[in-house]
């Protein structure tokens, strides 16, 4: 049938899919993205080759993930449904872009993935693939009746694995599914599908329990240029990080140590159902608060109102898998333009699951201390406020005058 490039994780599902694709007559090239997850990549390579992959690509895309996907989200203050920092949604187009690149390098016609037929990831992977390579063909086993009727549950997958010599996990399976990248880790399914069930002890892996986290905060100074963090300094020990990847990894460590970045939410999937997800986004949470603060300090009020509306739409597009759409590219341009003056340093404390902003400074600040001071009049005439209030009250007076007439008639 030709060559298929499989987005391979090394886990049970994609290992079974690799063997199943070979059964269907495909030559399989396995592609494993190193996007910051804890993984034994060499063991995964050997496993894929042992299962019959004709070639294995292991691509480290962590740096481009931070610079080309996470940084635009930080600039946007991207947040889906007020709480989700989009860790998985940002990773998928980055992973899929490299999938397409390898497919073209190999001269393959097909790509395959192990995303389920109920989730968002199938949409995110495939919309990226079709956008970047319109003629590509996608094999999605979990949407093929022959496959999902043959493997209705994990037991059937385990039986298939044993029959075909696929190594099965020795340690007991956690009663939920996990997906990790540099930005976050998500937990869903299994016992978490009942939304009233509290996350059990031991679920969280990127962050400490805030109750047992250190009793001394870490005070950080984060420097921004054009809305992007360019330097972080720890006021306690003087540690400094400048490169995008090192800076982000360092913030993950600091936030994780203090239990920062946990959320437990019910969200609306693009396919139409609600799902419960638990997320840890340590560095992303620090940067969300820091960027929000420096932006409010340096950006014009009316520009910021428009930008907030753009950020809302941007977050929705990213969540739904439209990173490579013309409208999302347009929004990234607009948001990037809004960030030209977002320059300066935010000082904050990371402590017991929280991020506390302590202060900020910027050469592009729109804050005028003399103008706002209660001690000095400055270049402001208080008497002018009388006319300002009078004009703004006119509409309210007219509205309530009409309401009075309506009430009398009734």
Q: What shape does the CA trace take?
A: globular
State the low-pLDDT regions, or none: none
Strand % is 15-25%
| C-alpha termini separation | 77 Å
Helix content: 40-55%
The DSSP helix count reads 13
Q: What pattern of helices and strands is seen along the backbone?
A: EHEHEHHEHEHHEEEEEHEEHHHEEHH
Structure report:
This protein has 13 helices and 14 strands. It has 410 residues and is α/β, with parallel strands linked by helices. The strands form three sheets. A five-stranded parallel β-sheet has the order 3-2-1-4-5, sandwiched between helices. One of its GO terms (cellular component) is cytosol. It is found in: Cytoplasm, Cytosol. One of its GO terms (molecular function) is argininosuccinate synthase activity. Pathway: Nitrogen metabolism; urea cycle; (N(omega)-L-arginino)succinate from L-aspartate and L-citrulline: step 1/1; Amino-acid biosynthesis; L-arginine biosynthesis; L-arginine from L-ornithine and carbamoyl phosphate: step 2/3.
